[in-house]
Amino acid sequence: MFAPRILILLPCPDRTAERAWGDYYFGHSLARALERQGAVVRINYADTTGRRHFWDRFMRWIRIREVDLVLRGKHFWDPLPHKRAMLWLISWAETVTPQELSAYRHVFIASSKFHAKVSETCRSSSVLLQCTDRTTFTPTGAEKGDHVLVVGNIRKESRTRPNLVLRLIEAGWPTQIWGRGWDKVVPEDRYSGLHIQNTDLGEAYERARVVFNDHTDGMRDEGFLSNRTYDALAVGTPVVSEAMPGFPEDLEPGVYFYTGEHDISDAVTRAADREKLDQEGHRKLAEHVVTHHSFDARAKTILAVMKGR
After folding, report:
1. How far apart are CA 204 and CA 136, in angstroms?
2. How many CA atoms are closer than 13 Å to the CA of 285, on its beta-carbon side?
3. Domains of the chain and any CATH numbers
4. Is 10 helix (H, G, I), strand (E, B) or coil?
5. What's the start-to-end Cα distance of the chain, in Å?
6. Is residue 18 scored above 80 in pLDDT?
7. N or C: at which end does the chain have fewer Cβ atoms within 10 angstroms?
């Protein structure tokens, strides 16, 4: 059987900056899942300086048999007119233009709300939500702690994040916080470090009593659920997350919603008490997430659409 050849174009710089970009790990997880389905995959990186632009564009021109699969985050890639090109919009939807969407043969959109808004702009489109990597986020039987785990940097796109976390600390919740900028904001004993290795995230989520999740304003408003919720649920840990449009109903049994600072502590209380699901319920939900919301499941969908396009 002829193996499909795919070039994944990432919205982040190359390996020198991998720790600062979740899109790096997302793209590599997708590549491995596609390869498990028999595809031949290469990866290319955005270069914000433009120094590699000519060479990268030239190499894409001569590899005409490859399908360009753009992961659209903060940075975009210009589709080449002679090549089959598809786009998976996973974030930064507020920066996407109708002209960009219409340039692709097919657009996957990680939000049912945004898909309904822009589907008429696209030549062809479908909903394809974010997901988890089953090779990283697999229950190991690690002992549960009593803490709320926070993983994420302080940045201007997440203006509410510091206030939400500080409210949890003020309410007396034990917290374990990883990310840039927190050392100047939270008590020293709550700050765990600048960066947690991606290979250690699965166990860290599993050991937490509750995993905290939030989004940039654009992702929240347009209904783009981040992969953190899928990752935590895949290892059996409940999640507190913002109420947002288009939230997948099949994930709701393991998620406890808040709408702002005033009720974040209450959401954590409910999650810690696991009022919706018992331990067995979380185990079954984890199996459901791995089956239906893994990169392997998404890779099968992507390849099926490529075959028809």
Report:
1. 11
2. 25
3. 5-131+294-308 (3.40.50.2000), 148-292 (3.40.50.2000)
4. strand
5. 18
6. no
7. N
Separation between Cα atoms, residue 72 and residue 119, nearest integer Å? 16
AA identity, residue 247: F
Output phi, psi for 236, to 5 deg.
85, 20
| Alpha carbon distances (Å) from 61 to 34, 67, 170, 176, 293 | 22, 11, 56, 47, 33
The pLDDT of residue 9: 92
- Sequence letter at residue 183: D
Largest interatomic CA distance in the chain:
60
Task: Find, among 135, 140, 151, the residue nearest to 290 by Cα.
Answer: 135
* Separation CA 229–CA 212 (nearest Å): 9
pLDDT value of residue 53:
60
pLDDT cut 70: percent of the chain above it: 90
Give the DSSP letter of residue 294.
Answer: B
Per-residue pLDDT tens digits for 108-139: 999 999 999 999 999 999 999 999 999 999 99
Residue-level pLDDT at 2: 59
The predicted pLDDT at position 14 comes to 72
Whether pLDDT at 72 is above 70: yes
Query: Per the structure block, which two tokens stand in for 103?
Result: 């340039």
The pairing of strands 125-127 and 148-151 is unpaired
